[in-house]
Each structure stands twice: as structure tokens, then as C-alpha cells.
Amino acid sequence: MSSESNNRGLKWAAGIILLTLLVLMFAISVYWSMEPDGLDVLALAENKAQKQNVEVVTGYVTTNTLIEIARTLLNKPGGYMSNDVMPPSVFLDNIPRWEFGVLVQIRDFTKALRNDISRTQTQSQEHPALAKAEPQFNVDSQSWLFPRAESEYSKGIDDLQEYLDGLTNPNNTQTQFFSRADNLRDWLKVVANRLGSLSQRLSASVGQERINTDLDGEPDATQSTIQATRIDVKTPWLQIDDVFYEARGTCWALINLLRAIEIDFGPVLEKKNAARSLQQIIRELEATQRKVWSPMVLNGSDFGFFANYSLVMSSYVSRANAGLIDLRDLLSQG
Fold first, then answer.
1. pTM of the predicted protein model
2. Beta carbons of 127 and 114 less than 8 angstroms apart
3. For a designed S-S bond to 139, which of 114, 119, 152, 195 qualifies (C-beta 3.0 to 4.6 A apart)?
4. Which domain holds residue 187?
């Protein structure tokens, strides 16, 4: 009888321990799934400049914002989770997709810095720190060993900081940030392509039959393989939330970058009468960051009883994308 009581007691103790671990893991998962708030880009830049006793020169706010976005990616609750192989983060897929959306914007803007914004022309010498930073941010986001993604991204942050330090050094005339309309326009084209793709993937959550327009406008155009004139497009059910959170991460990073662009490219935007257009784009993107109250991404039909979060997100992304196209047109005008 005593032996049975002991066994029953051990089972109860094991059950309580297991339940406690499950509750604790669930609580940690909820905390780690919280998305970071937006950045006060000007305040962060001014505080850093004050601590380093340097002047906030052209390009300082934007470069510092890129650094802060990358640091947030690594230092938010739970740290960087895309390459985790242990629970509970290995069971979380929404935040890793959010991280990927942010990472793509870091990669795109670092490339723009290296190839365009820091150079006067195509034949000018690229900045060595930016030449190192770009490939480091392009390490596989899921690499967890040899190399470890976080370590490479941290090195990329250090290289961006080296470039930022050079901007504020009056004796370093080789480190420049050129606030020009053509530089901004080139980067915005990349952003528009990203948002256009996301919008299509989001709207495909309900499934669509699309007309193939790949060769429209060019009668002599050809392509590698023949496609049907009508294409059925539908995001797989298990990937709907992945696309949704990738879009949220993309828009979060873009909001912060565009707020910084508004400051560093302010004179250019005012001259082109494009400042309000940029502000409207930021407003559209801010709408994508509203709180998600449902524990899962709802995928109702387009005019059904239940909401379709992906279609709502797609509408905001599409409007921001249309605004970017108009903004690029304004920047191209004399």
C-alpha cells in the first residue's frame, strides 16, 4: 500500500512539474511573440550624437536607423529566433517570418548604401565598411552554426557603425551620404517591387484566377518557358500566416526607414513637392501595424462571414505601393 501511495505521489509530482513547464513555456512563447514598437528615429540619432559629441550630419539619422533596426532584430524579446533549434522558439513561426521581412529591408538598404547613396557615380570607389556589411547581412537567415547568423549580422552592424563614424569625421572626406533624388528613387524602386510582390502573395490567400500579362506592352518580347494565359494562384493554407507576418515585418522596417528618409532627404522632398506624398505612404504602412486581436490569422473568403486579415493587409500594402510609384514620378521631375 505504501509503495502504491509513493508511485501515485510521484505521478502527481511529475504531472504538476510537466504542467508547470508547459504553462511557463506558453508564457515565454507569448512574450517572445510580441512585436517591437516603432523607433523614434530622430531622438535615437540625437541621443547617440550627443553621447559621442558629434554633429548630426546628412545621412546620420538614416544610417543610425538602419543600425537600430538591425539591433532590434537581434535584441528584441527572445532575441533572433529564425535559426533557433530548441523550444519554445523552434515552435514559433510568426516571429521568424516577421524577422525575415525586417531582414530583407536591412539587406536592400545596405545594398543601396553601398552601391548608390555613398557614391558619387558608378565608377567611384565603394566604401570598404559597406562592402563588408552587405555580404554579412546576406548570410542565410536560418544558419545556426558555421556561420551563426546572429554573429554575422552583428559584424554587419559594426561595419555600419564604422561607416556612421566616418560620416561625422570632418577629416574623412571619403565617407559620404549623398542626399540626391536619383539615389532615393533607385531605392524606392526596389521597395515598390518588394511591396508589389507581398501584395500579390497576400491577396492570393483566397485564391484567384489571373490573366497572364507578363509580356504585355512589348510585341517582340519572349520568355524562357511558355505559360498559360490564365493562371490559378493561391497561397497554401499553412503559409498564409507566414506571408502575413513577413508583410508586417517588412512594413515595420520600412516605416522606420522612411521616417529617417523624411529627415535626411528633407530638402530634396521639399524641392520636388513630395514631402506630403511620403507622409501619406508612412500612414498607409502604419495601418499595417495595428494590433492583431485574433490568436490566429483569419482567412475568410473575400465577401464571407469571417474577416480575411491577408486581404486587409494587402489593401494597405497596395496603397503604399501606389504611393511609392507616384513618389518616384515626383522625384524624377525637374
1. 0.90
2. yes
3. 152
4. 179-211+229-334
